[in-house]
Amino acid sequence: MRAPEDCAFRTQNEEITERTKWLRKAAFFHREDLLYLKFLIPPGGRVLELGCGNGHLLGALKPSFGVGVDCNPALIAEARKNLPHLTFLEGNIEDEAFLRSLSGPFDVILIVDTLGVLDDCQRLFENLHVLCTRDTRLIVAYFPISGTRHSSSPNCLDGACGSLLKTCWRRPTFRP
């Protein structure tokens, strides 16, 4: 993941306003996405969301223990303010030591709209093992949007990450 100084962060208010505006603009998509995630993730579990943004998704899933991680300090501050009963941490999800410091294991690890900003998806997935049990469910959702400010980011699903996910999906023991 790019260092915060490379992320071209704007002021905190601009980041929060832009994310809120984007969620409103694509409200139907996000509502349907949330309904499907609620179908996959029952309330009351231990949930880790990597790339949590303002925490709205983690909060809506109603975990008994929820941890959200993002590299954007403005969005983490907003999440902490709006959802004080959950834990939100500013950090680099590609940093193995940071991942090891999280209080796992988790029932669900959720990665939504985050793959496109990672430098090495496969390494992230390998580093998640310390946060998992045999029954941990890894849910990855990524919709590459061309023409946005993130369109210059590599599409992770075209490279090693896509190969890794396809390999996992072909395994007979993999439960989607």
Structural notes for this entry:
The protein is of the alpha/beta class. It has one domain (4-170): Vaccinia Virus protein VP39 (Rossmann fold), CATH 3.40.50. The protein contains seven helices and five strands; from the N terminus they run ααβαβαβαβαβα.
CATH topology: Rossmann fold
**Main β-sheet description:** 5 strands, parallel
The first-to-last residue Cα distance is 26 Å
- How many separate helices? 7
> Radius of gyration from the CA trace?
16 Å
SSE ordering: HHEHEHEHEHEH
Structural class: alpha/beta
Write the layout of secondary structure elements.
Layout: H1 12-25, H2 27-40, E1 46-50, H3 56-60, E2 65-70, H4 73-82, E3 87-90, H5 96-101, E4 108-112, H6 121-127, E5 137-141, H7 160-170
Parallel strand pairs: 1-2, 1-4, 2-3, 4-5
